[in-house]
Amino acid sequence: MSLTFISLILYLIFLFAFAIFSAFALYHLWQFGFLGDLCKPVAIVYLTCSGVIIFFSFVLILGLFLRG
Amino acid sequence: MKTEKRLTFPGQLEDEEVLLFLRRHWLSFLPYSLFFLFMLFLPLLIIFILTFFNFDLTPYRSLAIVFLSSFLLFAFAFFLTAFIDYYLDVTIVTNSRLIDIEQKGLFNRDISEQSLLRVQDVSSKRQGLFQTLFNYGLVFIQTAGEAPNFELYNIPKPDEVAQKILHLHEELLKKQEDIGGLEIKPITTKEKEERKGKESEEVSSEDLRKGGEVEL
Q1: Which of B1, B83, B97, B153 matches a 20 to 30 Å C-alpha distance to B28?
Q2: What is the ipTM for the molecules in this complex?
Q3: Which residue in the set A14, A25, A57 is minimally distant from B65, CB to CB?
Q4: Which of B57, B65, B81 to mutate to test the interface with A (most CBs of A within 10 A)?
């Protein structure tokens, strides 16, 4: 097994935990926020930033993986 | 300190109006924000140091990418947890109640409420340089009986808030006394005369209908 493959597996495990945590956190923001406050904008920014980081990391890792 | 009348919250009564909506001062969140920024720049710092010492990262590129993205995601998760802890700690003062919502982490949420009528004493306290400069501090609300007291930390303009809560308490107490009829108002001589006049009018009209004799 290559280092890239092991890294990818570890990363997927981390992402699973991260997704569960984020779901709980975003639920709190969505559920307990008040009208017109910062809860929803922060949730959207968090989702966008996390999505961008995950997307680019996958692009880079998969690029390395395909190259061998 | 917000005083939005349109603001609503779950469990709000029909005739209840939100008069004060309190959150902790933004300065109490500043250390977390600074730590988050530091976490964002830390990988850059590490890369800079490794490059400075001519450390070749090429064989570990995939591991480095995984570590970097995991660390960044962890930083965002940390920030979100801190934000939830700060932002969902809210104290709501309505025209009849005092509601304190305390969010502890992600899985603990304490909601305590008390009638404004049970408020006995409200005091404010500012300690230290920052609290004095930026006008924020502790608001302590003492309630009657065995009911728990309210300790609101890092509240902006604590003196104003304390005064407003006391004022609302007094207003509600006055209203309650008026409705309950506990307050005995002395009758003025003018009112006495008016009442006498009405009584005599009622008697005279009744007697007239009966056709009896009327004493004037």
Answers
A1: B97
A2: 0.92
A3: A57
A4: B65
